Structures are given as structure tokens and as C-alpha cells.
Amino acid sequence: MAARSYTSTSSLLLVFAIVIMVTLSNVAEGYNRLRPQDCKPRCTYRCSATSHKKPCMLYCLKCCAKCLCVPPGTYGNKQTCPCYNVWKTKEGRPKCP
């Protein structure tokens, strides 16, 4: 009877651990997701270091509206927003700044 209790306790702990892992992965996945009204301030910062602010803002806002994500910083870090990183122009260059 003691072996059965140990097995059920182990199973319960395993299920609990899996639920915690799934919850944490969903939190990490949603970390960069923005609401549409959050796009403008994020894009303003993202485009602050470029000399081409108008086109940068145009494409950043389009990308943010589609992906609900803007990479941190003023350049690079696109791997933090998979959709933002994958969207390309007809020529195959990155669409999002």
C-alpha cells in the first residue's frame, strides 16, 4: 500500500511541474506582446537613433500593428520578435526596422 501512495504522490508532483512549466512558457512568450496603443511609444524609442525617422516610424508602426511586438533597443534584437524578424520586402530585405 505504501508503494501505491508513493507512486500517486510522484505522479501528482510530475503533473504539477508540467503545469508550472507550461504556465511559465506562456508568460515568457507573451512578454513582448503589446497592445496596439503601446506601439507608438515603443516605435518612437526604436527609431530615435536613426536619421530616417519618418520611414522608420512608418514601418515600425506597421510591423508593431501586425506582430504586436517591437524589439528592445534602437537597433537589432529582432530575434525577440519572431514575426517582426521574418516579415520581408519583395526584395527579401527586412521590412521592420
Automatic annotation (TrEMBL):
Family, as annotated: Belongs to the GASA family.
Stated name of the protein: Protein RSI-1
Residues annotated as signal peptide: 1-30
PANTHER family: EXTENSIN, PROLINE-RICH PROTEIN, GIBBERELLIN-REGULATED PROTEIN 5
Source organism, top-level taxon: Eukaryota
UniProt KW Signal keyword: yes
Transmembrane annotation, as ranges: none
Pfam families to which the protein is assigned, alphabetical: GASA
